[in-house]
From TrEMBL:
PROSITE patterns: PROKAR_LIPOPROTEIN. The keyword Signal applies. It comes from the Bacteria. Residues 1-31 form the signal peptide. Coiled coil: none annotated. Residues 37-61 are annotated as: Disordered. InterPro entries: Bact_solute-bd_prot1. Residues 45-56 have a biased composition (Polar residues). Keywords: Signal. This is Extracellular solute-binding protein. The keyword Signal applies.
Length: 518
């Protein structure tokens, strides 16, 4: 799901203005409500920096299932919340869930509307560092969880996953979110190895070899439909051009990675792919669901996806009659690094609405600590034994029911325990396939890096980038399609980098980066 301020963010100035106005209205309403705190303790915040103690009535209510309204990412089909595995999850966590499932490709649009309205569910997902969400947190729409969690003595399972993660995503020193737990190895470029085999081509090990192979695949029309797609546009590949390297300006500021010369080199590489016919002409408007469908239907040669989806895609293609289909993962080096990345241990934010009473916040956090218990990991990833999976010789295998019901949507709005190979193994694949894929991915842990663009933080950046992000995206598209020269594109980037507001943000980026190194 996903990356940083740019590639996953489409913010409009009107939306931000609506969010700001509605946040102020929401805060005024909260200040006048019975749950607002006194002026001495702060509006709706725990007194003296610690959560208020629950009452006797609240303690009795703790025994009742917790009613929760949730807005969450949806990557697959809308699940049946009354099926066996969802029933067991709700029973184990002692909750009654009402979930607004929003397709991932439409999620930020829906999130903008919800934030602007101020009418939030109890729990809501968000992409990391999503500008409207960060602004909403600053304006008081979400609980600061710092005083609730304290030293994590009451949350032993969260203690294993949150502190390391939180150093990247605190806002003004406060922790407003918990991680949508993901292993550090998550996504990787995937390619149709069977097409390479038919052309007598080895697996590419460099970005240049990758480009040459894709050009041949497209020219030979390996899809057989007259419109073979080579690849999608994805900032993931920019890591191979050095966007993980901190680049400072003459004043000591840290330039945003996508506005560096390294990123310009990456844009130039894609310009060549467009000229080769490898990148489709409509690349700038293609969304994740469409790209995924093109890959699993046999129209495209490559796609950046979760590692385990090498099997998902292979299986889907074979079921469509392409019996020789074989999708494999790529480990490629570019001029300034590998086209690889690892996560900080999450795939997004989980936030709690400030409208939720304090006693309920504490129950939600205890529920999150329970969901992060390693003892529940099998339930979230394999389901119920005998229903969703069977075990033979120590190997879990999904049943036909499990193949329909078990996917990542089971843990899209709760933290779960860390599992190093969760996004490498496929529960529907054979033991041999999973073991081979784990062995293949072991070296990646040592060479993949957390993308710098996803963890830098600056108040000034939030303000200035919303004014220019759409314009910059349009200029990048023009550079790739040849509508403007690379010199014109670089001149535009230089103009942005020399603006006082950008320089101010870069100073804050430098300080943010320094704090992360401590």
């Amino acid at each position: 799901m996903r990356k940083g301020y740019i590639s996953n963010i489409r913010n409009k100035k009107k939306t931000l203005s609506m969010v700001g106005m509605n946040l102020i209205l929401a805060m005024l309403v909260a200040a006048c409500s019975p749950t607002g705190g006194s002026s001495g303790a702060g509006q709706g915040t725990p007194a003296q920096g610690t959560p208020a103690q629950g009452t006797g009535t609240a303690a009795r209510d703790d025994q009742k299932p917790l009613d929760l309204k949730v807005m969450s990412f949806l990557y697959f089909q809308v699940p049946d919340m009354k099926n066996a595995v969802w029933t067991e999850i709700q029973k184990k966590l002692n909750v009654n869930l009402t979930v607004d499932w929003v397709p991932q490709s439409d999620y930020t649009s829906k999130l903008d509307i919800v934030l602007a309205s101020g009418d939030l569910p109890d729990i809501i997902d968000s992409p990391e560092n999503y500008l409207p969400t960060v602004n909403a947190a600053k304006q008081g729409l979400f609980w600061d969880l710092t005083p609730f969690l304290g030293d994590y003595k009451d949350y032993p399972n969260l203690k294993k996953i949150v502190p390391e993660w939180s150093k990247y995503f605190k806002i003004d020193g406060k922790l407003y979110s918990l991680p949508l737990t993901r292993p550090k190895l998550n996504v990787i470029p995937q390619i149709r190895k069977d097409w390479l085999d038919k052309l007598g081509l080895p697996m590419p090990q460099t970005m240049d070899e990758f480009a040459a192979d894709l050009k041949q695949i497209v020219q030979k029309n390996m899809a057989g439909n007259g419109n073979t797609i080579g690849m999608e546009f994805n900032d993931y590949y920019s890591r191979a051009f050095g966007t993980n390297e901190p680049v400072n300006n003459s004043e000591g500021g840290l330039i945003y990675p996508f506005l560096t010369k390294n990123y310009t080199d990456f844009v130039a590489w894609y310009r060549d792919r467009y000229a080769d016919g490898v990148l489709p002409k409509e690349f700038s408007v293609m969304k994740g669901a469409q790209l995924q469908d093109m890959f699993t239907s046999g129209s495209s040669a490559s796609y950046v996806w979760n590692i385990y989806h090498a099997w998902t895609a292979t299986d889907a293609l074979r079921k469509k009659g392409m019996t020789d289909a074989n999708v494999d993962s790529l480990i490629m080096k570019g001029p300034k690094g590998y086209a690889l990345e690892r996560t900080v241990g999450s795939g997004g934010y989980i936030l709690i609405s400030k409208k939720v009473p304090e006693d309920k916040v504490k129950r939600i956090l205890k529920m999150f600590d329970q969901s992060a218990d390693p003892a529940l990991l099998d339930l979230f990833t394999y389901g119920i034994e005998g229903v969703d999976f069977t075990t033979a010789d120590g190997v879990k295998k999904l049943t036909d029911v499990g193949k329909k019901e078990i996917d990542t949507d089971l843990y899209q709005f709760v933290p779960i325990a860390d599992d190093r190979w969760l996004k490498v193994r496929d529960p529907q694949a054979s033991k041999e396939w999973n073991e081979a894929k784990i062995k293949e991915m072991e070296p990646v842990e040592n060479i993949a890096q957390v993308p710098l663009s996803t963890v830098l933080f600056s108040d000034s950046w939030l303000k200035v980038w919303s004014k220019y992000s759409d314009e910059w995206t349009a200029m990048r598209t023009k550079a790739i399609t040849g509508a403007i020269s690379m010199q014109d594109y670089q001149a535009y980037v230089d103009k942005l980098n020399n603006m006082p507001d950008f320089k101010k943000a870069y100073k804050e980026f430098a300080e943010s980066y320094k704090q992360m190194q401590q």
